[in-house]
């Protein structure tokens, strides 16, 4: 087992967790050599460890591994890139940086022979990336559904159980260190879609960009939506989902979903994450654990460091296969949409409508709509609309004409 000397970038929530966790993990043959931060201020570690000069860490030949846990994705990329080029392994928690640069990181790893590991970047403490990478052959993997963002899960829980509004609940998540420094990354689903892209690369060997995926967050969820979920014995969760269709292609999206009580994701509460993996022979398997926070995130980083001691690297085997999977948006989704103004709902975009409730102030409908239409035209993300996927909401094929005509007539829309 090799002894590793670490250069740590960042001493915030995660950086301090890494420092504490390593102090308590004497069995691991690693030591923190220097710590680079953005600013000079008192720290809960010996002052001589700290610098604000990144070059000191990046050019130190004694440092084997750069652990990058800063909150600036662009600077993180410069650090990771330089570290690999300078012959150092990298461990990173920055999903945004990794997803933005995954193609380049793959090339850099091949060119330098060094690895970047990032278990903590998706679902923090849950070892889902390494399991997808090593255990699940992609032809056997039917799909995965995950609550991958701890802070939105925490916020939705607070809105439901304590009837807090979204602002109060977000503030509480930030105070507890669960939310990103910029909470819109959590609320608008950006953090979740970044994690979804990471899972997709290791589950199916598909490298894609968030801009190619349908996603939204919980920013538009109203107390009325939560009340409707409660009345149906359901909960609302922000879920990242990838599913293999009967054509063999993969459809993927990140959307709020109504989750029924019997769904294993229903029990994922607070800042916890959970990922359900469905396979051909083993049915469902469930990964569960803390998806944010100082020590839980550090725990995955310590595991990556331990793996590096044994020479582990991601081999990205599924990316190299000739029967590689591809993405498709050619499916339909059964959705719920609540709205403040019925006049702004584009009913004609739906294949058919199933329910239509108009109450004073706010109404809602349920119906089936093509996923591609949600991507092409974002009317449903404006004007206070709130779109939520129904349970079992993926429909592969629809026999449209008659149903569409009938349901639109029922909704009073002349076509
Ligand atoms: N928090 C979580 O639960 C969690 C979970 C999984 C993944 N992550 C990821 O982990 C990373 C860090 O998150 P965090 O919550 O620990 O953030 P944080 O508490 O805001 O800490 C950020 C740290 O980065 C330092 N920093 C920022 N820019 C820098 C630069 N250019 N050079 C050197 N240091 C720099 C800051 O220095 P100063 O102290 O001087 O300001 C601070 O110590 C992010 O990528 C985040 O997405 C976080």
Walk me through what this model shows:
It contains 14 helices and 16 strands. It has helices at residues 13-23, 54-58, 73-85, 95-100, 102-112, 128-134, 150-161, 166-175, 184-187, 190-204, 223-231, 294-309, 371-376, 401-410, and strands spanning 4-9, 30-36, 50-51, 65-68, 89-92, 116-117, 141-147, 214-215, 234-244, 250-260, 272-279, 283-290, 332-339, 350-358, 363-370, 386-395. The strands form three sheets. The chain has a six-stranded parallel sheet, sandwiched between helices. A hairpin with a 4-residue loop joins strand 14 and strand 15 (363-370). The longest helix has 16 residues, at 294-309. It binds NADP nicotinamide-adenine-dinucleotide phosphate (NAP). NADP nicotinamide-adenine-dinucleotide phosphate binds next to helix 1.
Compile the SSE list and pairings:
Elements: E1 4-9, H1 13-23, E2 30-36, E3 50-51, H2 54-58, E4 65-68, H3 73-85, E5 89-92, H4 95-100, H5 102-112, E6 116-117, H6 128-134, E7 141-147, H7 150-161, H8 166-175, H9 184-187, H10 190-204, E8 214-215, H11 223-231, E9 234-244, E10 250-260, E11 272-279, E12 283-290, H12 294-309, E13 332-339, E14 350-358, E15 363-370, H13 371-376, E16 386-395, H14 401-410
Parallel strand pairs: 1-2, 1-4, 2-3, 4-5, 5-6, 8-10
Antiparallel strand pairs: 7-9, 7-11, 9-10, 11-12, 13-15, 13-16, 14-15
Helix pairs in contact: 1-12, 6-10, 7-8
Bound molecules: NADP nicotinamide-adenine-dinucleotide phosphate.
């Amino acid at each position: 087992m090799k002894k590793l000397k670490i250069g740590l970038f960042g001493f915030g929530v995660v950086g301090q967790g890494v420092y504490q966790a390593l102090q308590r993990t004497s069995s691991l043959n690693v030591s923190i050599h220097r710590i680079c931060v953005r600013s000079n201020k008192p720290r809960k570690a010996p002052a001589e460890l700290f610098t604000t000069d990144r070059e000191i860490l990046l050019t130190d030949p004694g440092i084997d591994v750069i652990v990058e846990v800063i909150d600036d994705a662009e600077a993180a990329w410069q650090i990771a890139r330089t570290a690999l080029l300078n012959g150092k392994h990298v461990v990173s928690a920055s999903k945004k940086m990794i997803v933005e640069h995954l193609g380049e990181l793959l090339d850099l790893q091949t060119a330098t022979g060094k690895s970047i590991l990032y278990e903590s970047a998706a679902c923090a403490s849950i070892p889902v990336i390494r399991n997808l990478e090593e255990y699940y052959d992609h032809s056997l993997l039917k799909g995965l559904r995950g609550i991958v963002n701890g802070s939105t899960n925490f916020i939705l829980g607070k809105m439901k159980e304590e009837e807090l509004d979204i602002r109060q609940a977000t503030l509480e998540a930030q105070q507890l260190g669960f939310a990103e420094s910029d909470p819109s990354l959590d609320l608008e689903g950006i953090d979740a879609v970044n994690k979804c892209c990471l899972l997709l690369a290791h589950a199916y060997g598909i490298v894609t960009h968030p801009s190619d995926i349908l996603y939204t967050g919980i920013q538009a969820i109203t107390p009325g939506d939560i009340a409707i979920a409660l009345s149906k014995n359901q909960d609302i969760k922000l879920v990242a989902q990838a599913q293999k269709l009967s054509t063999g292609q993969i459809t993927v999206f990140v959307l709020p979903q109504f989750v029924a009580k019997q769904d294993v994701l229903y029990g994922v509460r607070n800042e916890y994450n959970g990922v359900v993996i469905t396979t051909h022979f083993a049915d469902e398997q469930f990964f569960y654990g803390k998806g944010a926070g100082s020590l839980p995130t550090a725990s995955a980083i310590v595991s990556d460091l331990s793996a590096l001691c044994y020479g582990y690297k991601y081999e990205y085997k599924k990316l190299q296969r000739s029967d590689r999977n591809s993405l498709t948006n050619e499916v339909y989704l059964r959705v719920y949409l609540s709205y403040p103004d019925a006049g702004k709902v584009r009913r004609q975009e739906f294949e058919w409508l199933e329910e239509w409730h108009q109450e004073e102030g706010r109404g809602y409908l349920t119906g089936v709509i093509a996923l591609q239409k949600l991507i092409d035209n974002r009317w449903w993300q404006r004007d206070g609309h709130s779109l939520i996927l129904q349970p079992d909401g993926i429909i592969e094929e629809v026999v449209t004409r008659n149903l569409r005509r009938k349901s639109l007539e029922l909704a009073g829309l002349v076509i």
